[in-house]
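Write out the 3D structure for:
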Amino acid sequence: MTSLTVLSQKAAIERDPKGVAEIPLLRLDWIWFYNPGTVCNLACNHCLTLSSPSSKVLQPLETSEMRAALEDAKKLAGPGFSIGMTGGEVFLLAQKKYQERLFEQVELSLSYGDVLILTNAILATDEALERLKEIDDKAPHSLSFRVSLDGPSAEENDKIRTGLGGSPTYDGIIHGLHRFVRAGFNPTIAYTYDGEGGKEKVAKSLEEANKRYQKALGDVELPNLELWGIPLFDQGEEFKRREQEGLDHIESPGITNHCISHYLNNAFHDFQCSYSRAFCKEPNGETGWYKCAVLPAEGIEEGSRISATLEEALNPIGLPHTQCITCFRAATQGCAMSCSGE
C-alpha cells in the first residue's frame, strides 16, 4: 500500500528547484467524479470542460465504476474523504434516460463521506430534491450543493451562462434555488471572476462582486445563501470566447519550485492537487484518475490523465499546464483556488 507520508517526503527530497514545479499529494481529502461526463443541459460560452447537450468529451459514469473508485480511495486514503460530483449537469442523471442513477450514486457516495454536488439548478425538480433529502436524512454523512450563477442580474448572467442557441438561464436558476431552499438545502452560489491582477485589485473586485450578488439574492428572497468566487480558466469554451471577442489569453511564464518556495513559502496545501484527484471516463470507455477537477480529460488538456489506478495517481504531479497559473495566482492573492471551497 502506498503511503502518502512517504510520497510527500520523497517529493521534498527529489524536487529540482530549476525544473517544472511538482506538487506532492499531502493527503487525499477529495475525490471528484464527473458523473454525467460532459453532457449538460446548457451550452455556456465560458465552460472550461466543453460541456453541452451533445458533448462527448467525457462519458457518464456507471455506478459500478464509482463504487470501485470509492473502494480504492477508502483503501489508500482511509476513511473521512469527501466526494465531489460535477460535469456536465449532474441532475441529468435523475432522468429515466439515465435510469435515475443519480439517487443510487448519491446514496452510495454518502456511505463513504460528505458529498458536494455542483449544478446549475435548472433540472433540480421538487421530486428529485425530495428524494435526495430523504437519502441525506438517512445517511451517515452530509449532502450539500453549489449552484453556478454568472451575474447578479439576468443581463449579465445570460451573456455567459446560456442554453442552446443562447437561451437565457437566470430565471431558471433563481427558481431552482428556491426549490433547493424549500427542500431543506441551502446551496452555495458559485460565480466566476477575472483573476488577473494583484492581490489588492482582486480582493476589491471580489468584495464588490459579493455585495452585488448579496443584494441580488436579497431582492429575490434568498438572502442567506453563501457566495464562492472561482477564477476563470482559459480553456474549453472560455478559450474560444476570448478568441472570438479579441480578449487576451492568460499566459504562464512557467511555474517552478522556486516560484512556490519564494512566493508561497512552499504552501503546497494552497493547490487543490495537493489534496484531491478526479475520476472520469474518456470517450473510448476507459476510466482513470486525473490531476484535478479543472483538467478532467485528455481531449481538453493533454497530460491531464495520471493513471488507470489510484495508487499510481498518488505520486507528485507536475504543473506544466497554462491553467495551473490560475491556481498559482489565486494562492498568491490569498484566494487559494479550490473546487471544494476549502
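DSSP finds eleven helices and eleven strands in the chain.
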